[in-house]
Design a protein that fits this description.
Two copies of one chain form a homodimer. Chain A has a single domain, classed as 2,3-Dihydroxybiphenyl 1,2-Dioxygenase, domain 1. Helix content of chain A is 23%, strand content 37%. The first copy, chain A, has three helices and eight strands. In chain A, strands 2-3-4-1-5-8-7-6 form an eight-stranded mixed sheet. At the A-B interface, strand 1, helix 1 and strand 5 of A face strand 1, helix 1 and strand 5 of B.
Chain lengths: 134, 134
């Protein structure tokens, strides 16, 4: 069902500091940066092979990432799998017992469509599905 | 420096339950299972593209994974990057200011060599380097 790990998202307080540290320590510069208004976040991605490390910083006090940071501090937030057809994947996952947060896909970064699966049904790991712009 | 994301490790209480859920919900079966005595864990990996999801269950009360589970519950434990030459990568990372937990590589699963970077120096994310058996 999944093609590959599209990205691993890390919730951070200061995206510029995270990028600077990543560039200095790992020698990897971000390839993409964007505010995603639907999720009230700013994101920056660093590619490692076919997967991106995605830093996410909240842009508003009521961003879900703000809540995550207040409760748990900085750290890994979710794992995203790349799919060809997100609507078909959501239907299949629901049929197999996964608790889908987004019944219909939402707009993600760079024209992608995304949907989240509730960690209650996946051993406390938050998963996202991503279909890139065709 | 990094070739790709080798695996994403998830600390779990019951590896059989996690595998069963993964097989049922995501339709993905594990490709490898092993006890890694040096880390007092049992692991099982499920391949998604070039990356594996790695479940880790402690096999002893003094396993570092037991401590993680007691403090934080089930969840994502670390991100591992594949490298060609782990000793060269460790030297380079130390020179760039990363706090290396393992100054010399340790034995990981399936004949690999592994070393961890302290989350203090990487914005609270635990990273591992992996060099596979040549």
């Amino acid at each position: 069902m999944f093609d590959h790990v599209d990205h691993i998202a890390i919730a951070v307080e200061d995206i510029d500091r995270s990028i600077a540290l990543y560039v200095t320590t790992f020698g990897q510069a971000p390839s993409h940066r964007e505010r995603v208004e639907d999720f009230k976040v700013e994101i920056a991605t660093v590619n490692i092979g076919e997967t991106a490390i995605e830093f996410i910083q909240p842009t508003s006090g009521d961003s879900p990432i703000r809540k995550f940071l207040d409760e748990r501090g900085q750290g890994i937030h979710h794992i995203a799998f790349r799919v060809d057809d997100i609507c078909a994947a959501l239907k299949e996952l629901e049929a197999k017992g996964a608790e889908v947060i987004d019944k219909s896909p939402r707009k993600g970064k760079d024209g992608s469509l995304v949907a989240f699966i509730h960690p209650r049904s996946t051993e406390r790991v938050l998963y996202e599905l991503v279909q890139v712009k065709g």
